[in-house]
Amino acid sequence: MKKIVEFVSSRIFLTAAAVLLQLIWIFAMLWGLGAFSGHIVSILNLLSVILVLWIVNKKINPSYKLAWTILILALPVFGVIIYLLFGQSRVAKKMTQDSEKVVKEISNYFRETKTTRQALYSENQGISNQSAYIRDYAGFPVHRNTTTKYYGVGDDMFLDMLEDLKKAEHFIFLEYFIIHEGRMWGAILEVLEEKAAQGVDVRLIYDDMGCVNTLPPRYYKGLQAKGIKCAAFNPVRPILNIVLNNRDHRKILVIDGHTGYNGGINLADEYINEKMRFGHWKDTGVRLHGEGVWNLTVMFLQMWSVITRTKTHLPAYGPYVYHPEEFEKDGFVQPYGDSPLDDEVVGENVYLNMINQAKHYVYIATPYLIIDNEMMTALCLASKKGVDVRIITPGIPDKKLVFLLTQSYYQQLLAAGVRIYEYTPGFIHAKNFVCDDELAVVGTINLDYRSLYLHFECATWMYQCRAVSQVKEDMVETFEISKEISLDMCRRQNIFRRGMQSILRLFAPML
Q1: Cα 26 vs. chain centroid, distance in angstroms?
Q2: d(C-alpha 251, C-alpha 440), whole Å
Q3: pLDDT tens-digit profile of 342-351?
Q4: DSSP secondary structure of 284-342
Q5: CA 430 → CA 130, 425, 471, 499, distances in Å?
Q6: For the purposes of burial, counting CB atoms within 10 Å of the CB of 175, is it exposed (0-12), middle (13-18) or buried (19 or more)?
Q7: In terms of domains, do 215 and 158 share one?
């Protein structure tokens, strides 16, 4: 009974109930108009056709077009309203304009070093081309004077994060999708409060929708009272709003401009296995020390400037400001971001570039495998060319319907020779790509439509870094404790399960 009362009084329930009531009111009003005049229904049907034609001519993924076209034509009024509320992969026009302005202002401080580009080009022209794509279409340069350390579980990364936070002397920037009160966040918050009291510039961005069930309303006000500068991305309001469809899914920690963390790990106890939810929670991350942290700093300050509508003098936060000594070299690193503010699907294209140019192997870890035709074709073709393609998905899912959809892609991949493993100990939340012992990406970008098209994301691209071999070693060890899925296992599924998967596949872009 207590749990029911807590759920009914929770912010997520109240918000959902308010939105549902607004939808019911809209449909009731339209229903009344339809009963009053058949001409109204005809007009709405015409508008549905016009909307479908507009969607078909948009520069978006064909699967996305198909799903919305079917819904709108099958249920004209309902489909149109749902699309206008949740179907558009863009944020508010004002935010887009503000972001473009910030990018323009920082361009003079955020350029690539020619010697670094020349060194990468000399090493491998094909790899340099992949890196140049990130520079030109995501806007983040490649760096060389940086060391890397990879973490195969959040438990280990958390310990190093705490130690580095305690060493902070000038500023700490955090940007996270989920924060949940508990041991992990409690320990971090204690350090942040101490540092803020010492005069350290502490800033935090959290996604309010991501924290809708983990933090109380206006949580940022309590942190501000403690001296921590805090802003909630996309504050949840109980009104119909398309902006709620876009989330800040990034995970970034920057300390004094020279030390940074990136990966899939949020600030909640399940990520360090302090709390068990779906068996052992495996997540990954990477620590950077050096010039490469500059990309994470700029990424954070871009978002901070947009949502707080304040200006920041970027050069004051550069990697050498509080670390005048030279940094150690460890290959090439390029943290980058992706957003729904443009028509460029950077997150997916970086993955496609890796798959298409792999010569020996591509190992992938993802919690969700909901892929479009381009990704399916690339994975299957790479395997058919003789590349060893392997994918790890959860053994214990966090969302059963989404996992059922994930499994619906197995058969086609397995038939092409791709090997698929399910992480037996529990849930794998890692977003890893590694290929040919030389290139790896670790970050927040899932293989699903929401992550690739609707969210603000980030990842770290690494070439010839120590972390690359560490990612591969971790992946190989994970294969050994996971269950390999066979083609025969997929074919033995009952007809009802296959039928459900077929329906889910049709609306995969909406999940």
Answers
A1: 33
A2: 18
A3: 878 999 999 9
A4: -EEEEEETTHHHHHHHHHHHHHHHHT----GGGG-TTTS--SPPPP-SEEEEEEE-TTS
A5: 22, 14, 11, 29
A6: buried
A7: yes
Based on the fold, state whether residues 108 and 79 are members of the same structural domain: no
Is 341 within 8 Å of 96 (Cβ atoms)? yes
pLDDT in tens, 34-73: 555 556 667 767 777 887 787 777 777 777 777 778 777 7
In contact, 249 and 456? CB cutoff 8 Å: yes
Q: CATH number for the domain including 155?
A: 3.30.870.10
At residue 10, what are phi and psi to the nearest 5 degrees? -75, 160
Residue 200 has φ and ψ, to the nearest 5°, of -70, 140
Domain boundary among 310, 338, 366: 338
Q: Which of 291, 315, 338 is the last residue of a domain?
A: 338
* Domain housing 278: 93-338
Beta carbons of 355 and 382 less than 8 angstroms apart: yes
CA dist 66 and 348 (Å) reads: 19
C-alpha 228/C-alpha 230 separation (Å) is 6
Co-location of 44 and 110 in the same domain: no
pLDDT tens, residue by residue, 209-223: 889 888 988 899 999
Are both 16 and 124 inside the same structural domain? no
Residue with tokens 């390029």: 334
Looking at the fold, whether 376 and 504 belong to one and the same domain comes out as yes
For the full predicted model, state whether its pTM sits above 0.85: yes
The number of domains in the chain is: 3
Q: Which of 174-178, 276-280, 429-433, 459-463 has the lowest mean pLDDT?
A: 276-280
pLDDT of res. 471: 98
